[in-house]
Design a protein that fits this description.
By secondary structure, the protein is an alpha+beta fold. The chain has 15 helices and 24 strands.
């Protein structure tokens, strides 16, 4: 049996799955947590990878491995390969002002046409502008910039400072893939090239950038493990999830994790000057238009904390309340928001009365508010002409019975819920198998049958949500 490993180096943890390269059967898996916060020393990812590998029973029998990682994060390296400062993660919003400035300087339409997306605080290009402005001493030391999965792949190849166990800097050995490169704000999915002019605009110069590999193109072997372990190119987390789910054109994935994402596999690139849709590339040669919200599964965590119950009880309470929670509406901007682009917004509760001042109503409002934000993502993809034939609901939040049963009414479509799984890590494993096998297309492993949930669309709930959301947006804009 030939085995391949897929790694999901996410915001919260490192997960590793080991699968049979022929049929995708799960052999074993392991995980280890990452430290909390919106900035982290990348060495913590390396340490977590080691612990996750040990928890998975080791990697001695693995023939190929690929790393999927959280998108956008800025890993700044000096000329010796050392980390200049802790990596800024995608959910670090301190570069919101820099994003606004870059959009104003170049224009939203020009950004969308150049790189498929209008920059927001998540994007690497905005973090580089922030670094140049606020930490010029660190900016001066920066020789190369890469993404989390790029850095881990580089370390797996044996590179990095000798003091950290690496064999040397060799910054020219840094590689990335088209899916993750498309989230930087300075690589064009349509043109397949870096836009150094935009990097110059943001940072004032062009540091060394990772070489962009094609689908299934290997950067080399994992010398840090064994010399014969082939590495895949890696991928951004959402692109890897699409591979893991076997998503095809017409499929839209609604993923409820740390962030909420709504994305589709598309044969054509998108360029939304309004900024709602990020026009990313996928990991298989096509495109991945995506809408992202900052507030997803942690809205459910907040409900549990507010009500002093566990997540299972949040679900039970939510299902015991009527649809619409008798007029109670949550705008769940608990960590600011990315779509719409309101990084300084806060959450708000509307329509509170004696009649709906109960734990059940509040739990329902939390679930419906989170789903309304994701439903806006479906609307944006539809408006952009992206075909939607099937909606797949995945992520930690999809494990909630209330989410699964309420989602069709809020999203306005039946939803297919695959069994809970590590689909980002699975997608990385698919990519490892693809790289190892040298096939023209990724292997199509069997994906377990999804359960289907249906409900009549609750248009009125979304209309009320939009009314309150627009009042918040208008108030924030008026304060600027």
């Amino acid at each position: 049996m030939t085995l391949v490993a897929g790694v999901d180096s996410s915001t919260q943890s490192c997960k590793i799955v080991i699968r049979d390269a022929e049929d995708g059967a799960l052999v074993r898996q392991g995980s280890a947590p990452h430290p909390p916060g919106t900035e982290v020393d990348p060495e913590a990812w390396w340490a977590a990878f080691g612990r996750a590998a040990e928890a998975a029973g080791g990697l001695d029998d693995v023939a190929a491995l690929s790393v999927a990682g959280q998108q956008h994060g800025m890993v700044a390296l000096d000329a010796e390969g050392g980390v200049v400062r802790p990596a800024l993660l995608w959910n670090d919003t301190r570069s919101a002002e820099a994003a606004d400035d870059l959009v104003r300087e170049h224009g939203p339409k020009a950004w969308a046409e150049a790189v498929g997306s209008v920059p927001v605080a998540s994007f690497t290009v905005t973090k580089l502008r922030w670094l140049a402005r606020h930490e010029p001493e660190h900016a001066a030391r920066l020789a190369a910039v890469c993404l989390p999965h790029d850095w881990l792949t580089w370390r797996l190849r044996g590179f990095g400072p000798a003091a950290s166990g690496g064999s040397g800097a060799d910054l020219a050995a840094l590689t990335t893939d088209r899916s993750d490169a498309s989230g930087t704000g300075y690589w064009s999915p349509r043109g397949g090239e870096y836009r150094s002019d935009l990097l110059e605009l943001a940072f004032g110069r062009t540091p060394l950038l990772p070489r962009v590999l094609g689908p299934a193109q290997s950067p080399g072997s994992a010398a840090a493990l064994r010399g014969d372990v082939l590495l895949g190119p890696g991928a951004g987390d959402n692109a890897a999830a699409a591979l893991g789910l076997g998503a095809r054109p017409g499929d839209v994935v609604v993923s409820i994790g740390t962030s909420g994402t709504v994305f589709a596999v598309s044969a054509a690139p998108t360029a939304d000057p309004e900024g709602a849709i990020a026009g990313f590339a996928d990991a298989a040669g096509a495109f991945l238009p995506l809408v992202c919200t900052l507030n997803a599964a942690r809205v459910l965590d907040a409900a549990a904390s507010t009500l002093n119950v566990d997540l299972a009880e949040v679900s039970r309470l939510a299902l015991s309340a009527p649809p619409g929670a008798d007029g109670l509406t949550l705008i769940p901007y608990l960590e600011g928001e990315r779509t719409p682009n309101l990084p300084d917004a806060t959450g708000s509760l509307h329509g509170l009365r004696l009649a709906n001042a109960s734990s059940a109503h509040l739990a329902r409002a939390y679930v419906e508010g989170m789903l309304c934000g994701l439903a806006d993502g479906l609307d944006a993809l539809t408006a952009a002409g992206v075909p939607i034939e099937r909606v797949l609901l995945v992520g930690g939040g999809a494990r909630s019975e209330a989410v699964r049963r309420i989602a069709p009414a809020i999203l306005g479509r039946p939803v297919c819920v695959p069994p809970p799984g590590e689909y980002v890590a699975d997608g990385a494993a698919v990519q490892a198998g693809w790289t190892l096998g040298g096939r023209a297309e990724p292997p199509r492993w069997n994906v377990a049958t999804a359960e289907v949930h249906e409900a009549a669309p609750a248009v009125w709930i979304r209309e009320r949500y939009h009314e309150h959301r627009e009042s918040i947006s208008s108030a924030i804009v008026g304060m600027k």
